[in-house]
Task: inverse folding
């Protein structure tokens, strides 16, 4: 999806012009994939742009650095303020936010201990990742031939830039085969997640999502959906899922910051009812929560200014 430039990008403590936010070709993380990132959305509200679950996102960002052993020169409160400053500088009522931590120029080789960590935050307008009609039309899923990382190969709990080579291979494979998104299996053959979203399956009126042990990211949108679902009185469980569970599901939906909530209309050419009634009400409630239109979830939204 194309990027629309905005006036400023935050880099190492300062807002710089978009076109001047550049790095050297010998930047360490460009060579070895040893960066971390987040995806966050700021939504338009009656009080101005509100950043959805910002503190939780920046806490996960810092935790990703801890998992990699990457020194983080900024605290969570400092990063939260930097995001607010960057969102405000765009003048946009709503935008996507991309914090990035990476080892900068000056060192080369696999030993990261001498490397310095640089941090950047960019914002731009970005629509729903799976399309604006993903809720109503649904997306077609394909089980990927690429396996999700084992915990002792690449830590899936960290949003590491290099981890997403795996996801990119799965996504492109699915697109080239005529599908919209890929379902990725854990090394043991159970469902992990999609290439860039958590997955939920409704079976026997129970909403189920795979555990972190299967290689699923601890999703913030996922957590939001589970909270909303329980508040609505639904039975929500974290449990293992097999491919066959997807084939006979009553409903399936995927969620993530970029994708928000999208329904699934088929898996490996097996049709799935779409959109299911639970999917629709969860998506509608989530949309209100993110825009400060539901007082139960107002604490999830942090105003940019």
Result:
């Amino acid at each position: 999806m194309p990027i629309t430039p905005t006036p400023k990008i935050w880099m190492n403590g300062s807002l710089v012009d978009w076109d001047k936010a550049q790095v050297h070709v010998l930047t360490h993380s460009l060579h070895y994939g040893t960066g971390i990132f987040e995806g966050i959305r700021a939504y338009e509200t009656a009080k101005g742009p509100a950043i959805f679950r910002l503190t939780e996102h920046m806490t996960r960002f810092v935790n990703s650095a801890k998992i990699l052993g990457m020194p983080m020169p900024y605290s969570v409160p400092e990063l939260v303020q930097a995001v607010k400053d960057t969102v405000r500088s765009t003048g946009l009522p709503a935008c996507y936010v991309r914090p990035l931590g990476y080892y900068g120029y000056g060192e080369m080789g696999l030993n990261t201990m001498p490397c310095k960590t640089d941090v950047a935050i960019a914002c731009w307008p970005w629509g729903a990742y799976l399309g604006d009609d993903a809720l109503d039309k649904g997306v077609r899923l394909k089980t990927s031939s690429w396996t999700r990382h084992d915990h002792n190969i690449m830590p899936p709990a960290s949003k590491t830039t290099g981890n997403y080579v795996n996801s990119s291979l799965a996504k492109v494979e699915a697109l080239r085969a005529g599908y919209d998104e890929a379902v990725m299996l854990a090394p043991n053959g159970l469902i992990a997640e999609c290439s860039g979203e958590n997955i939920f399956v409704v079976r026997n009126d129970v909403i189920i999502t795979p555990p972190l042990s299967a290689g699923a990211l601890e999703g913030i949108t996922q957590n939001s959906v589970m909270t909303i679902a329980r508040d609505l009185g639904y039975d929500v469980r974290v449990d293992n899922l097999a491919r066959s569970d997807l084939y006979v599901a009553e409903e399936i939906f995927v969620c993530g910051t970029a994708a928000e909530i999208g329904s699934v209309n088929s898996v490996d050419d097996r049709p799935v009812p779409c959109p299911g009634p639970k999917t629709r009400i969860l998506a509608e409630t989530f949309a209100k929560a993110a825009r400060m239109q539901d007082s139960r979830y107002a604490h999830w939204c942090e105003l940019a200014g």
Remarks:
- Residues 52 and 301 are 5 Å apart (CA to CA).
